[in-house]
Write a structure and sequence with these properties.
Strand order of the largest sheet: 3-4-2-5-6-7
Largest sheet: 6 strands, mixed
Number of helices: 21
Distance between the termini: 104 Å
CATH architecture of the largest domain: 3-Layer(aba) Sandwich
CATH superfamily of the largest domain: Thiamin diphosphate (ThDP)-binding fold, Pyr/PP domains
Shape: globular
CATH topology of the largest domain: Rossmann fold
Helix content: 25-40%
Radius of gyration: 43 Å
CATH class of the largest domain: Alpha Beta
C-alpha cells in the first residue's frame, strides 16, 4: 500500500495539454473541463490549433494544445503561463517553453523521446537530460508503452491502441488534482453508445493512468482547488459559438419571429452554423450558402419576409459582405452579423485569435452606412451578446454587427443556463394591416425607426432596394436635399440606440482619475490586472498568493500626493519666464516669415562675430609662438616663419625687405639658424617642420653678434631637433 501524498490547496491553476494534431488534446482538455465543472470550479479554456494545413507529424508546426484555467474565485482569462504541462512528444516541449513558469510540472511521454522525434523537434540532445528543463519538475512516464500494456487483451492493433494514450495522460492529471472520474465515464457512455468494447477500452486506459500515478508516487504533492462560490442554478460547460447560437434561438422565441441563418462555413465561425442545424424543431432554418455574398443576401431576403435574420462570418468574409451591409442599412431591415474574428488581414491566421475587424466593422462600408456594433466579453457572455444584438436589430430596424473572436468562440466557460421567463421580451415595430396612414418610411418620434411590413399583409405593399427613397413615402428619389435628409435620419437613428443600452458597470474606484475601456475579449485581461498577482509554481510550494498593489486608502493618498506635485510643477513653470514662448507671437504668415528671417540674420551675425574673435585669439597665439629677434640679424643668419601669415616687421621677402633664404630656396616650415642647412629631408616638407619657441635674450657671442637662444622644440622627437640650436 502506497503512502498518500500531501494534498495542497490552491487558489487557481493553469494546465496545458499539448501534443500532435492527432493525439486528441482537444478532447482531453474538454473532458478535464467537464470534471472541473462537476467539481464546482470556475474556469476558462483556450484551444490552440495548428495554423498550417496538415503539418508534418512530430514538428513544432503541428503541435495542438488545450489550456484550462480554473479556480475557486471568478476566472476572467484563460491564463498566461501554465503550472502543469502535459507533453506527448518533444515538439510539444519545444513549442510551449515560453509559456512555462519556473517550477512547472512537465508530464512527458518518455516513449516519444526517440532520436528521430528529437530531430524533428529541433533538439540536438534529449532536453530531459541535457539540463534544458532544469528549472522545472519533469515527470517522465512511459505512456505509450503502458497504454499498449493495458489494452493487450482487447485484440486491437498497435495504431488503435495508441489512440487511447491521451486517456492515460488524463488519468494522471485527474489523480494530480484529486478529481473523480465519473464525468469522464459518463462521456464514454454517451459518446460511444452501443460500442461496449470501445467504452471498456477507454475506461481501462483512464484507470491505468490514474492508478499508475498513485502506485508509482510520481508526485510529492497532489492538489485540490475548492469549489467556487457560484450563484445557484443549472450550469454547463459551453463554448462561445454554442452560446451565441443559443442566444439567437432565445431571441427568436422571445420575439416570436422565426430564426433564419444564411452562412458560408468559415473558420472559426462554422460551429454556429453546425449548432443551429440541430434545432429544426425550434423553427430554425439554417442555409449553407456557396459564398459569403450569397449568405448575407439570403439573410436580407429573409429579413424582408419577417424572419429574425442572421449571418455569420470572419475577417475576409466580412469584407465580402460590406456591399450587402450597405443594402441592409438602406432598406432599414433587421439583420444580425456575427463576426468571429481571427488574426491578420487577408486569410491571415484562421486558427489564431485576434480582434482584427474593429475598423472594418465600424467604417468598412461604402457611403454613409451607420449601424450598431457590439462585442462579447467572454465565452459564456456570447449568449447574452447575441440576444442583445437580435433585440437591437429588430426593435430599431437596423443591421447589428456582433463581434466575437476565435478565443471566445472556441473557448469554453461555466455557463449558468437562464430561465426563459427571466429574459426580456423583444417587441419589433411590426406594421398593422390595412393602416390607412401607413408609409414605408414613416418613423416614430422617439427612435426614428420605420415599421416592419411583413409581405402579404393587406395594405402594406411597397418597394425596397438599394436606390435612395423619399422620406416617408418611400418613392425613388435622386433629390440631393432628400438624400441629405435620409442620411441624417439614419445616422440619428443609430445615435439614439445608445439610449436603449443600459449603463456599463464600472469596476474599481468610481472617482478615479483614469478610465480604462476595454473592447470585447480584452475585458477579462484588463479586469484581472487591477491587482498585481504573484504566482508560485504548483510544483514548488504549491501556493498562489494574490497581492493587491495597495489598499484603497493608500492608493488615494498616493494619487493626492502625485496630483499635488504635478500642480506645483505646473505653477513653477508658469512663474518661470519662458523666452521661447515669448517669441511665439501670433501674427500673419508674412510677419512670422520676417521674424524668422531676422532671427536667422542675427544668428549669422553672432556666428561671424564669434569666428572673428576666435581668429584674433589664434593670431595672438601665433605671435607668442614666433621667433623674436633681439636685433637686426647679420649676414648669413636666417629666421624661419612658423606660418604662411605675415607677421609684424616681416613679409614674404624676409626681414626689412632682405631675401629670406640664401639661394632663393624656401624650405617651408623649417627653421635655419646661423646659416646652417635645413633639417634633413626635402625642403618645404611638412614632416620636417619644427615649431620652436624662442625667448628674446640679449647675449653676446665671441664675435659680438646677437644670437638666438632657443627653447625646447614642441616636437620632442630627437631627430626633429633644430641643428645647432642651443637647448
Amino acid at each position: 500500500m502506497t503512502a498518500k501524498s500531501k494534498v495542497v490547496a490552491l487558489e487557481h491553476v493553469v494546465i496545458r495539454f499539448s501534443g500532435d494534431s492527432g493525439d486528441g488534446m482537444q478532447l482531453t482538455g474538454n473532458l478535464f473541463s467537464d470534471s472541473t465543472a462537476f467539481a464546482g470550479n470556475d474556469f476558462a479554456t483556450f484551444p490552440d490549433y495548428p495554423a498550417e494545413i496538415r503539418p508534418p507529424q512530430g514538428t513544432v508546426a503541428g503541435v495542438s494544445g488545450f489550456q484550462v484555467h480554473f479556480g475557486h474565485k471568478p476566472v476572467h482569462t484563460t491564463g498566461d503561463l501554465c503550472d502543469v504541462l502535459v507533453a506527448m512528444n518533444p515538439a510539444s516541449i519545444k513549442a510551449n517553453m515560453r509559456w512555462l513558469r519556473p517550477g512547472t510540472i512537465i508530464i512527458i511521454d518518455s516513449d516519444s523521446m526517440t532520436d528521430k522525434a528529437l530531430e524533428k523537434a529541433g533538439y540536438a540532445d534529449d532536453p530531459t537530460v541535457d539540463g534544458t528543463l532544469a528549472d522545472y519538475q519533469v515527470v517522465k512516464a512511459p505512456i505509450s508503452e503502458l497504454t499498449k500494456e493495458a489494452l493487450k487483451d482487447f485484440g486491437m492493433d498497435n495504431k488503435s491502441m495508441l489512440k487511447s494514450k491521451n486517456m492515460f495522460a488524463l488519468g494522471i492529471v485527474l489523480y494530480l488534482f484529486n478529481r473523480e472520474r465519473d464525468s469522464v465515464y459518463s462521456y464514454f457512455e454517451t459518446k460511444f453508445k452501443g460500442k461496449d468494447q470501445v467504452i471498456k477500452a477507454n475506461r481501462t486506459v483512464l484507470d491505468a493512468g490514474y492508478h499508475y500515478a498513485d502506485t508509482w508516487e510520481l508526485f510529492t504533492n497532489t492538489y485540490k482547488v475548492e469549489a467556487a462560490d457560484l450563484e445557484k442554478g443549472k450550469y454547463r460547460n459551453i463554448t462561445g459559438n454554442v452560446a451565441a447560437a443559443w442566444g439567437l434561438m432565445a431571441a427568436s422565441e422571445k420575439s416570436g419571429r422565426p430564426l433564419f441563418l444564411g452562412s458560408y462555413p468559415i473558420t472559426p465561425a462554422t460551429d454556429i452554423l453546425a449548432e443551429l442545424t440541430k434545432y429544426k424543431n425550434l423553427n430554425v432554418k439554417a442555409y449553407q450558402a456557396e459564398d459569403e455574398i450569397a449568405g448575407i443576401m439570403s439573410s436580407i431576403g429573409a429579413a424582408y419576409t419577417g424572419c429574425m435574420a442572421v449571418t455569420t462570418t470572419s475577417g475576409p468574409g466580412l469584407s465580402l459582405k460590406s456591399e450587402a451591409l450597405g443594402l441592409a442599412v438602406m432598406t432599414e431591415l433587421p439583420l444580425v452579423v456575427i463576426d468571429v474574428q481571427r488574426g491578420g488581414p487577408s486569410t491571415g491566421l484562421p486558427t489564431k485569435m485576434e480582434q482584427s475587424d474593429l475598423l472594418q466593422a465600424l467604417y468598412g462600408r461604402n457611403g454613409d452606412a451607420p449601424l450598431v456594433v457590439i462585442a462579447a466579453r467572454s465565452s459564456a457572455g456570447c449568449f447574452y451578446t447575441a440576444f442583445e444584438a437580435a433585440r437591437l436589430a429588430m426593435e430599431h430596424m437596423t443591421p447589428v454587427i456582433m463581434l466575437s473572436d476565435g478565443s471566445l468562440g472556441n473557448g469554453s466557460e461555466v455557463f449558468r443556463i437562464p430561465r426563459m421567463a427571466d429574459l426580456p421580451t423583444i417587441t419589433p415595430p411590426i406594421a398593422k394591416a390595412d393602416d390607412p396612414d401607413y408609409q414605408p418610411f414613416r418613423r416614430d418620434e422617439k427612435w426614428l425607426r420605420r415599421e416592419w411590413a411583413i409581405p402579404g399583409t393587406p395594405g402594406l405593399r411597397h418597394r425596397v432596394g438599394g436606390l435612395e427613397k423619399e422620406n416617408g413615402k418611400g418613392n425613388l428619389s435622386t433629390n440631393p436635399e432628400n438624400h441629405q435628409l435620409m442620411t441624417e435620419l439614419r445616422e440619428e437613428k443609430i445615435n439614439r440606440v445608445a439610449n436603449d443600452i443600459p449603463l456599463q458597470e464600472v469596476y474599481g474606484d468610481k472617482n478615479a482619475d483614469l478610465l480604462v475601456v476595454s473592447w470585447g475579449g480584452t475585458f477579462g485581461t484588463v479586469r484581472r490586472r487591477r491587482g498585481h498577482t504573484v504566482r508560485r509554481a504548483v510544483g514548488g510550494h504549491a501556493q498562489e498568493e494574490r497581492q493587491e498593489t495597495a489598499t484603497r486608502a493608500d492608493h488615494h493618498e498616493a494619487r493626492r500626493d502625485h496630483a499635488a506635485r504635478k500642480a506645483q510643477r505646473t505653477r513653477n513653470q508658469q512663474e518661470r519666464p519662458v523666452y521661447r514662448q515669448q517669441k511665439l507671437v501670433v501674427g500673419s504668415r508674412q510677419q512670422l516669415e520676417q521674424r524668422q528671417q531676422w532671427q536667422h540674420h542675427r544668428q549669422r551675425q553672432y556666428g561671424q562675430a564669434r569666428r572673428h574673435r576666435r581668429f584674433e585669439q589664434l593670431q595672438r597665439q601665433r605671435w607668442r609662438w614666433r621667433l623674436v629677434l633681439s636685433g637686426r640679424p647679420q649676414r648669413g643668419q636666417q629666421v624661419a616663419s612658423l606660418g604662411k601669415q605675415k607677421h609684424r616687421g616681416l613679409d614674404r621677402r624676409g626681414y626689412h625687405g632682405q631675401p629670406r633664404w640664401q639661394g632663393g630656396r624656401r624650405p617651408g616650415r623649417q627653421a635655419v639658424v646661423d646659416g646652417g642647412e635645413p633639417a634633413e629631408g626635402r625642403g618645404g616638407g611638412r614632416r620636417q617642420a619644427h615649431h620652436v619657441q624662442a625667448r628674446r635674450q640679449r647675449t653676446r657671442g665671441a664675435e659680438g653678434a646677437h644670437t638666438l637662444q632657443l627653447r625646447e622644440p614642441l616636437n620632442r622627437s630627437a631627430r626633429h631637433h633644430v641643428p645647432g640650436a642651443a637647448m
